[in-house]
């Protein structure tokens, strides 16, 4: 075969003829299958032949009623003989149209059309033969007989399909004993879809729908897919006890935050498993079959609407460009890569010191976006020579700087490493971006940089100062983005709570009043992409994150989502603030003024940045400090001297204790 292909290629090269023409002339002719009548005798075929024979007699007999020849039908042997002729013709037509060996379990409208054509042809030929031999029924009899025979023949054949799919449905449907008794919250489109798929035994929506609730008074007392809407949402607790409900499905995904909070608060007072699903109105028709139930998580319980930024309006600066993401394998960096791939960059460079997550991300993106050139480079931002070689090789147009040491307690114990990475690593990257004339550089900061009490926060504040100081005299547009805690990111408090609950508790919280601003990973990444589109140089962009959330409330909701009761099944233990922690986080300093931008929910800080010389002096002071073998407290004191708003954790805790004593 390969020799023949080589010969064909040589023939194409020497002849100059189109390749398709040559291949066509060389291809071996395969004889077409000639139409004919063939049949494999099986029990099903015998049944259908007998059925069609008897159905012909029945159809002609019923069609004869009401005619003048009705008496002849029952007294004349010639009539029965001629009926037999019609039966033989019907069977011959079925053979000609190959309607006996069909797999009727998978039949569709095409088989119906073939069946109609076969029976119509047989009716016409039968009537023609009858007239030729002198046996004449009215034309109306033949027409009615054809309709009846078509019905009888179709019933017999499509019975196989009905039986087959009924058996498949029974095999797929879980046993009722293993289907949790389910209450559906919401009697709209989403609730209807949920009940329908549960009833059909869909594994993506397992449950036995018992009752539905809805606050719409017009729906109460009605039925939705044979499930009664018995009451309002306030009646959930009573219904759970009365009907022995084991599972509650939240099927009002379009509800407001206040409505969702009210529903979740009611449902979490029960011991039922709480599930939800997306809004079917937001899905395409081809996505409806993929809708599945999922457990309610803390993202659903946020006290504000998730902010959805239309990144396409401002992401033109990424399309067709070379984009570098430092820390690309991390929580924010990886989601940022996914968002950027949506707007078709020319090349995406994922730079990270940890190869495993970067490699997995590259595989994921490569499968989804084959039009994007995705590269993975391993290295540290602390290595200036490595960064110079990286920029020399790829010449990135846009840089997103997400690489950082971010764990507050660990950086309190290792301040030198935090400074080397978060300060000098950022400086290396900024200098490389400036030297290679990158179009835009976006530094990812944190709310912990505002009046920091931790080493991590102080180093990120210095990173902001570096970015702002170099922005004024550079061709590169340098800006920063500041946001709060990210739900589900590496090292966040939520995975720790889940592990503690799985182990039976206790759930440890540092302080009963500690609160944080929270956002989801997609929110954070969209903020970064949008800020890049708004950036003109020197700004710090801030997402309007609403009100801070108490960690104690989050922990207790998470316990209830697990079907347990706080202080009863799982204890909550307060262990005191960790080194570097604050009770409350802030998004801007008193000296900063924030203004709205063209994009709703994004603010910009417009404070006067420090000069480049002043920031450079701070960096040199830190460099000299790190060269000396000082203890941890000396390093923190040196860092505090460079960041006036930084109050080391030891002093911060002492001040808080003094305030509480007063």
Q: Total domains, how many?
A: 3
Provide a count of the helices: 22
Q: What is the 3D form?
A: elongated
Largest sheet: 9 strands, mixed
Structural class: alpha/beta
Please describe what this structure looks like.
With 662 residues, the protein is α/β, with parallel strands linked by helices. It has three domains: 43-171, no CATH class; 176-295, NAD(P)-binding Rossmann-like Domain (Rossmann fold, 3-Layer(aba) Sandwich), CATH 3.40.50.720; 314-484 and 519-545 and 586-642, NAD(P)-binding Rossmann-like Domain (Rossmann fold). Helix content is 47%, strand content 14%. It has 22 helices and 22 strands. Strands 10-9-8-11-12-13-18-22-21 form a nine-stranded mixed β-sheet, sandwiched between helices. A seven-stranded mixed β-sheet has the order 3-4-2-1-5-6-7, with helices on both faces. A hairpin with a 5-residue loop joins strand 21 and strand 22 (602-605).
Strand-helix topology:
Elements: H1 2-15, H2 19-26, H3 43-64, H4 70-75, H5 77-96, H6 109-132, H7 139-172, E1 181-185, H8 189-199, E2 208-213, E3 223-224, E4 227-231, H9 236-243, E5 247-250, H10 257-267, E6 273-276, E7 294-295, E8 322-326, H11 331-341, E9 347-352, H12 355-368, E10 373-378, H13 384-394, E11 398-401, H14 408-413, H15 415-435, E12 440-446, H16 455-471, E13 477-483, E14 485-487, H17 493-502, E15 507-509, E16 515-516, E17 518-520, H18 521-534, E18 540-543, E19 549-550, H19 551-561, E20 572-574, E21 594-596, E22 602-605, H20 612-627, H21 632-642, H22 649-661
Parallel strand pairs: 1-2, 1-5, 2-4, 5-6, 8-9, 8-11, 9-10, 11-12, 12-13, 13-18, 14-17, 15-20
Antiparallel strand pairs: 3-4, 6-7, 16-19, 18-22, 21-22
């Amino acid at each position: 075969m390969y020799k023949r292909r080589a010969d064909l290629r040589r023939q194409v090269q020497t002849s100059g003829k189109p390749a398709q023409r040559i291949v066509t002339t060389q291809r071996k002719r395969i004889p077409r299958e000639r139409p004919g009548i063939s049949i494999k005798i099986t029990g099903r075929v015998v049944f259908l032949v007998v059925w069609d024979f008897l159905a012909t007699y029945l159809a002609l007999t019923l069609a004869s009623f009401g005619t003048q020849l009705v008496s002849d039908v029952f007294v004349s042997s010639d009539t029965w003989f001629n009926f037999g002729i019609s039966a033989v013709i019907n069977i011959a037509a079925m053979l000609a149209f190959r309607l006996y060996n069909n797999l009727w379990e998978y039949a569709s409208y095409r088989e119906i059309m073939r069946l109609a054509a076969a029976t119509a042809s047989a009716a016409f030929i039968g009537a023609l033969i009858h007239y030729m031999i002198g046996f004449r029924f009215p034309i109306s009899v033949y027409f009615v007989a054809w309709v009846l025979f078509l019905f009888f023949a179709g019933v017999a054949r499509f019975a196989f399909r009905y039986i087959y799919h009924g058996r498949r449905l029974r095999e797929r449907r879980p046993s009722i004993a293993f289907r949790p008794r389910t209450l559906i919250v919401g009697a709209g489109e989403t609730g209807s879809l949920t009940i329908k798929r549960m009833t059909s035994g869909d594994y993506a929506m397992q449950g036995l729908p018992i009752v539905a609730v809805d606050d719409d008074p017009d729906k109460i007392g009605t039925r939705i897919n044979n499930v009664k809407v018995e009451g309002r949402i306030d009646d959930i607790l009573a219904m759970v006890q009365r009907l022995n409900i084991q599972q509650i499905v939240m099927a009002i995904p379009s509800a407001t935050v206040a409505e969702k909070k009210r529903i979740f608060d009611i449902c979490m007072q029960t011991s039922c498993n709480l599930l939800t699903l997306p809004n079917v109105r937001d899905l395409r028709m081809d996505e409806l079959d993929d809708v599945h139930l999922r457990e309610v998580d803390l993202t659903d319980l946020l006290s504000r609407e998730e902010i959805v930024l239309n990144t396409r309006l401002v992401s033109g600066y990424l399309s067709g460009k070379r984009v570098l993401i430092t820390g690309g394998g991390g929580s924010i960096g990886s989601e940022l890569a996914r968002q950027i791939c949506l707007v078709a960059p020319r090349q995406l460079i994922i730079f990270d010191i940890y190869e495993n997550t970067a490699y997995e991300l590259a595989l994921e993106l490569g499968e989804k976006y084959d039009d994007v050139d995705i590269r993975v480079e391993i290295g540290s931002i602390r290595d200036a020579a490595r960064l110079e070689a990286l920029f020399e090789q790829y010449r990135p147009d846009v840089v997103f700087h997400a690489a950082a040491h971010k764990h507050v307690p660990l950086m309190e114990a290792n301040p030198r490493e935090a400074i080397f990475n978060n300060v000098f690593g950022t400086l290396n990257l900024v200098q490389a971006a400036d030297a290679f004339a990158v179009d835009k550089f976006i530094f990812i900061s944190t709310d912990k940089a505002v009046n920091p009490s931790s080493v991590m926060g102080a180093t990120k504040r210095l990173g902001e100062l570096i970015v702002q100081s170099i922005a004024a005299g550079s061709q590169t547009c340098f800006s920063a983005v500041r946001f709060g805690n990210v739900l589900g990111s590496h090292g966040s408090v939520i995975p720790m709570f889940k592990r503690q609950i799985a182990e039976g508790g206790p759930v440890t919280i540092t302080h009963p009043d500690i609160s944080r601003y929270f956002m989801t990973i997609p929110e954070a990444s969209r903020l970064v992409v949008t800020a890049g589109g708004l950036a003109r140089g020197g700004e710090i962009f801030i997402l309007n994150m609403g009100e801070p959330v108490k960690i104690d409330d989050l922990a207790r909701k998470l316990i209830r989502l697990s079907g347990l009761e706080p202080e009863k099944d799982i204890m909550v233990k307060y262990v005191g603030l960790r080194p570097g922690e604050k009770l409350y986080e802030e998004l801007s300093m008193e000296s900063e003024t924030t203004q709205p931008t063209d994009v709703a929910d994004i603010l910009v800080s417009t404070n006067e940045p420090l000069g480049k010389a002043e920031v450079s002096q701070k960096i040199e002071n830190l460099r000299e400090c790190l060269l000396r073998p000082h203890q941890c407290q000396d390093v923190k004191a040196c860092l505090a001297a460079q960041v006036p708003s930084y109050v080391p954790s030891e002093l911060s805790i002492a001040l808080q204790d003094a305030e509480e004593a007063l």
